[in-house]
Design a protein that fits this description.
Blueprint (H helix, E strand, L loop, with lengths): L5 H14 L4 E4 L4 H12 L3 E7 L6 E6 L6 E3 L5 E2 L4 H8 L7 E6 L2 E4 H7 L3 E7 L1
Antiparallel strand pairs: 1-3, 2-3, 4-8, 5-8, 6-7, 6-8
Family: Belongs to the universal ribosomal protein uS8 family.
GO molecular function, one term: structural constituent of ribosome
Keywords: Ribonucleoprotein, Ribosomal protein
Length: 130
């Protein structure tokens, strides 16, 4: 299997395990972007706890699933989004208002669209979760 994107592979593994009814999933390899993305998902309640395991290689992550995930996706290429354009991307990517999150990488770290709008910060589009 060819790895196009570590983040994309991670999200696909999570969604596939969720659809099969699994309670946990093992993700490898790990990266800082994947860990920050998962922490935003955890803060919004889409996944349970996750634990990083250092195997002196690329690392592993064990994620506890809670059955709240419908769909995830990575946006490639990572489009630049200004703070004023966030609302139009929300309308384009999410199925309904108040349902799901879009995750950006900004100068203030990896944030969801609500927090980026509150801080009036734009950034690059990473992906969406609902």
């Amino acid at each position: 299997m060819v790895r196009i994107s570590v983040l994309n592979d991670c999200l696909n593994n999570i969604v596939n395990a969720e659809r099969r009814g699994k309670r946990q999933v093992l993700i490898r390899p790990s990266s800082k972007v994947v860990v920050k993305f998962l922490s935003v998902m955890q803060r919004h309640g889409y996944i349970g706890e996750f634990e990083q395991i250092d195997d002196h290689r690329s690392g592993k992550i064990v994620i506890q699933l809670n059955g709240r995930l419908n769909k995830t996706g990575v946006i490639s290429p990572r489009f630049n989004v200004q703070a004023t354009q966030i609302e139009s991307w929300v309308n384009l990517l999410l199925p309904a208002r108040g349902f799901g999150i879009i995750i950006f990488t900004t100068s203030s770290g990896i944030l969801d669209h609500e927090e980026a709008r509150r801080k009036n910060i734009g950034g690059k589009l990473l992906g969406y979760v609902y």
